[in-house]
Amino acid sequence: MTDTAPEPIVTRVGDIAFADAQQLLSAHGLRLHHVAAGQAIPGSYWGEPEAGIIASNVYVRDDTPVHSMLHEACHLIVLPPERRAQVHTDATDSVPEEDATCYLQIVLAGYLPGVGSARLMADMDAWGYTYRLGSTKAWFEQDAEDAKAWLIERGLPVA
Question: Is the pTM of this model over 0.90?
């Protein structure tokens, strides 16, 4: 996001129960850390308010979009443990891993009370994620077979 454009209205970490997010990420071997308002978010690739990642740690503030928290967490989830341990800020430059990450964040949103997959996809569109079919939902339902297969091959959730 640029400093001059207003941020889109999306679901933020402060809008959900932090304990629910912690529990969801913990089930995948990750630790979710709350960063105080106004403090820098460690490991944030895009800068505040975007989530940050370092090894198995995900860092967020109340103003961090939930889609960002899930996206960065999913970058870690799709990595094997030895690669995860080496991550600091930038998880991958692999297109298949990026696609799998986007797919998985939508799936995991369905397990997060107060969010759900449909809301997350709308937030992703509002934030500016782009897909060749024009929307996150169209991509997820009609054009993400490779991402789904990638996740299935590695025993990660797809529903």
Answer: yes
